[in-house]
């Protein structure tokens, strides 16, 4: 147990960017530690049970890690700024009393903070779980919280192919009612589109036939007029 997890005790390499924890003066190699009454504590980084029982466990380091994350994403600002240690002692047992967060915080960091800050130490994750969660989190979770609702909504909407694929027969060879409703709706819409398409084609054919008939009638009229004129010319020629 480190017992003093905070930004002030983190060293970062300028070349590699590797971060290492320092200052092990308060660390203990044990499952728990009874803090002496006269030992001073960095109150604003301590878990609620440390304040109330003065017993330190590994899960207390997890709570402090949540405060460390808050420091990192708030440019090293002091947690509970403007609030004195006495007030923090009195209010820390309230699960809603935690450093404030805003919409610029990546959703994955927000979730880790909230789980690390749980009042019940049993419900906090282990550091190994935190590491796995951060390593496996998809890239979109590192976006600010403000951009998450629309992204999650779009991501949560299944594509038509995905829904159709999920409508396959189950182990008993039967389709679910929801899938049947989807298929029925899809079939109806498809028939409606097919009907509209057929009507459009028929209308086009009808217009084409009418236009063709009109052209034929016009051509026939011209031909008859031409024939009559030729006959009149022939008669005039005979009379002469």
Automatic annotation (TrEMBL):
Pfam families: PK_Tyr_Ser-Thr
Domain of life of the source: Eukaryota
Polar residues bias locations: 208-224
Keyword terms of this UniProt record: ATP-binding, Kinase, Nucleotide-binding, Transferase
Biased composition, class Basic and acidic residues, residue ranges: 189-205, 230-240
Region (Disordered): 165-240
Name of protein: Protein kinase domain-containing protein
Organism encoding this protein: Trichostrongylus colubriformis
């Amino acid at each position: 147990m480190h017992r003093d997890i905070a930004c002030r005790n983190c060293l970062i390499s300028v070349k590699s960017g590797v971060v290492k924890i320092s200052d092990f003066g308060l660390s203990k190699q044990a499952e728990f530690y009874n803090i002496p009454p006269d030992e001073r504590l960095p109150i604003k980084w301590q878990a609620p049970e440390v304040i109330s029982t003065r017993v330190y466990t590994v899960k207390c380091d997890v709570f402090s890690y949540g405060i460390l994350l808050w420091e990192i994403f708030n440019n090293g600002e002091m947690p509970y700024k403007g609030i004195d240690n006495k007030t923090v002692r009195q209010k820390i047992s309230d699960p809603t009393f935690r450093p404030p967060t805003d919409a610029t915080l990546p959703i994955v960091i927000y979730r880790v903070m909230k789980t690390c800050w749980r009042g019940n130490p049993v419900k906090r994750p282990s550091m190994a779980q935190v590491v796995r969660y951060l390593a496996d989190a998809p890239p979109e979770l590192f976006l600010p919280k403000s951009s998450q609702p629309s992204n999650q909504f779009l991501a949560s909407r299944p594509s038509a192919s995905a829904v159709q694929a999920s409508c396959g027969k189950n182990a008993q060879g039967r389709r679910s009612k929801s899938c049947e409703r989807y298929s029925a709706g899809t079939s109806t819409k498809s028939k409606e589109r097919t009907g509209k398409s057929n009507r459009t084609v028929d209308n086009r054919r009808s217009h084409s036939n009418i236009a063709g008939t009109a052209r034929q009638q016009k051509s026939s009229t011209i031909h008859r007029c031409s024939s009559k004129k030729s006959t009149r010319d022939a008669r005039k020629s005979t009379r002469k």
